[in-house]
C-alpha cells in the first residue's frame, strides 16, 4: 500500500453497508481511521457481526446527526448525490469522497477499468481470464462481486475493475492505465437525472487516463460522446474487407476479429467460432477483451482462441438454461435496461417469445416496442412496469401480448406460445426489485420454472 499514514487518526463516516461499503469501512480501519458506518436499511446479522469484530461503530434503519461527527464522508457504491446528509455535508465543506478515489491509490497493480451500459461483467471477466491464461498476475474486482477495497490486499500486476456509473460519478482523482467502454445507451436515468449526466459519469473513466500514455477501447460510433485521448482503439463491424486502420474490426463474412494498431501491425484476434457465448454483443465483448489483453502484453496473446473456448460466462447473461421440445430457454435476467434487451432480441438467432417487466428506471419503451414488433412472436409482461410496456407495444401497433402477475404465470404461458425453433427469452428491460432481491434471484427462478415444464409433444423431441 502507498501513503499508509495519510488517513491515520482521522474520522470517516461510510455511507452504505453493502458489499462495497463494508469493504471500504474495513480498509479505512486498516489505515488507522476511526470509522462509523451508516445504512438506511436494516443490516443483515452477518454485516453486524463483521463490523463488531473489527471494532467499527454503525447505525441502521436511517441516518442520524452522528454521521456529521467526521472528517470524511466515504460513499459506498450506489450512494446518490441527492441524499440529504450528503448535500448538507457538501454545503458545510465536509470532504465527500467516492469509493474509487479513496481506494485506487492503494492498489498494488496497474488499473484497467471497464465500464459501459451493457457487457461490463462479461468483458471484465474475459480480460481477467485471458490475462491469467497468459501468466499475468491479475485481480478482477469492482462492481463484479469482489469490492475494489478488498483488491488492495491482493498482489497483482494488473487490477481489472468493472466500474459502474454510480462509482464513476464521484471519481475526481482516479487514475488508470487502460479504459474499456463497452457501449453507451440510456440507463439509470432515475439516478443520474438525464442521459447526458449518465454519459458524463461514464466519461470519467476516460478522463482518468494518463494524458500521454493512457489508452481507451471504445465503440467507433461513440467516439463523439467521450473525451479525446492520445491513444484510442475504436471497435466497429463490417460485412467484408480488411478491417479499419487503427482499430478493431469484426468482419461478418470472414467470421473473425482483426486488430490494427501502431507498433503491433494488423493481426487476427480470433475466429468467431472460438467463442461459445450467444449473440453478436458477446463477440464485441470478446474483441474488446482480446484487444485489452494485447495492449497489456504489448504483443498478441499466444493462446487467445484456446482460452476463449475455455471461458465460462457469468450467469444470467444470454445463458441457455434448457432446451425443451425444440424450444430454447435463455436467461438474460441481467438485461435490466432497454438497450440490453434490444441487444438480446437482435443478437440471438431465431424468433423469440420475450418476457418483459419488473421495476423501471425511468426509460421510454418506444424503441423496445419497435424491436419486439420485429423480433418477437409474442410478449409476456409482468411486474410493476408491465402495463407501461403494454401501452408502448399497443402504440407501436403490436397486440400479441399478455399481462400476468409474475414469472410463475409468465414462463408456462411463454412456452405455450412458442413454436419449434423459438427461444423463450427472459430479458426484462427492468430491474428485479419489485419482486426479487436482485437479478440473480430472478434468473434462478426463471431457470427453475423452465426446468419444471413438461414437453409439448406437438413441438417434437429436442
Automatic annotation (TrEMBL):
Return the protein name.
Answer: UDP-N-acetylmuramoylalanine--D-glutamate ligase
Q: Does the keyword Cell wall biogenesis/degradation apply?
A: yes
Q: Which lineage?
A: Bacteria, Thermotogati, Synergistota, Synergistia, Synergistales
Q: Where in the cell is it found?
A: Cytoplasm
Q: Name one GO molecular function term.
A: ATP binding
Q: Which InterPro entries match?
A: Mur-like_cat_sf (IPR036565), Mur_ligase_C (IPR004101), Mur_ligase_C_dom_sf (IPR036615), Mur_ligase_cen (IPR013221), MurD (IPR005762)
Record flagged with keyword 4Fe-4S: no
Enzyme Commission (EC) number: 6.3.2.9
- Top EC category: ligase
**From which organism does this entry originate?**
Aminomonas paucivorans DSM 12260
Amino acid at each position: 500500500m502507498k501513503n499508509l499514514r495519510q488517513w491515520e487518526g482521522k474520522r470517516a463516516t461510510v455511507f452504505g453497508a453493502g458489499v462495497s461499503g463494508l469493504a471500504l469501512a474495513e480498509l479505512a480501519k486498516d489505515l488507522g481511521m476511526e470509522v462509523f458506518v451508516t445504512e438506511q436499511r436494516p443490516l443483515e446479522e452477518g454485516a453486524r457481526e463483521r463490523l463488531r469484530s473489527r471494532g467499527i461503530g454503525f447505525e441502521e434503519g436511517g441516518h442520524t446527526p452522528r454521521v456529521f461527527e467526521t472528517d470524511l464522508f466515504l460513499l459506498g457504491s450506489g450512494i446518490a448525490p441527492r441524499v440529504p446528509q450528503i448535500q448538507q455535508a457538501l454545503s458545510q465543506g465536509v470532504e465527500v469522497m467516492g469509493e474509487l478515489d479513496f481506494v485506487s491509490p492503494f492498489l498494488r497493480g496497474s488499473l484497467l477499468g471497464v465500464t459501459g451500459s451493457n457487457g461490463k461483467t462479461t468483458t471484465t471477466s474475459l480480460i481477467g481470464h485471458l490475462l491469467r491464461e497468459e501468466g499475468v498476475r491479475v485481480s478482477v474486482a469492482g462492481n463484479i462481486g469482489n469490492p475494489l477495497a478488498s483488491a488492495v490486499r491482493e498482489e497483482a500486476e494488473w487490477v481489472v475493475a468493472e466500474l459502474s456509473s454510480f462509482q464513476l460519478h464521484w471519481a475526481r482523482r482516479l487514475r488508470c492505465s487502460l479504459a474499456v467502454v463497452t457501449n453507451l445507451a440510456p440507463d439509470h436515468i432515475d439516478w443520474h437525472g438525464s442521459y447526458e449526466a449518465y454519459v458524463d459519469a461514464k466519461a470519467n473513466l476516460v478522463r482518468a487516463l494518463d494524458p500521454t500514455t493512457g489508452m481507451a477501447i471504445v465503440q467507433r460510433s461513440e467516439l463523439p460522446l467521450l473525451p479525446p485521448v492520445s491513444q484510442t482503439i475504436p471497435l466497429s463491424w463490417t460485412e467484408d474487407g480488411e478491417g479499419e486502420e487503427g482499430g478493431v474490426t469484426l468482419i461478418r463474412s470472414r467470421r473473425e476479429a482483426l486488430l490494427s494498431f501502431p507498433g503491433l501491425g494488423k493481426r487476427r484476434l480470433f475466429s468467431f467460432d472460438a467463442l461459445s457465448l450467444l449473440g453478436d454483443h458477446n463477440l464485441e465483448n470478446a474483441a474488446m477483451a482480446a484487444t485489452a489483453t494485447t495492449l497489456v502484453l504489448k504483443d498478441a496473446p499466444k493462446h487467445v482462441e484456446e482460452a476463449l473456448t475455455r471461458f465460462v460466462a457469468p450467469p444470467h447473461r444470454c445463458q441457455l438454461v434448457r432446451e425443451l421440445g425444440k424450444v430454447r430457454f435463455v436467461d438474460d435476467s441481467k438485461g435490466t435496461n432497454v438497450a440490453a434487451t434490444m441487444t438480446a432480441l437482435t443478437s440471438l438467432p431465431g424468433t423469440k417469445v420475450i418476457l418483459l417487466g419488473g421495476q423501471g428506471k425511468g426509460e421510454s419503451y418506444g424503441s423496445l416496442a419497435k424491436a419486439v414488433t420485429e423480433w418477437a412472436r409474442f410478449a409476456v409482461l409482468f411486474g410493476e412496469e408491465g402495463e407501461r410496456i403494454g401501452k408502448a407495444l399497443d402504440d407501436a401497433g403490436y397486440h400479441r401480448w399478455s399481462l400476468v402477475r409474475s414469472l410463475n404465470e409468465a414462463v408456462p404461458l411463454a412456452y405455450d406460445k412458442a413454436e419449434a425453433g423459438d427461444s423463450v427469452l427472459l430479458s426484462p428491460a427492468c430491474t428485479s426489485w419489485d419482486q426479487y432481491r436482485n437479478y440473480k434471484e430472478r434468473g434462478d427462478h426463471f431457470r427453475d420454472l423452465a426446468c419444471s415444464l413438461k414437453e409439448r409433444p406437438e413441438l417434437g423431441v429436442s
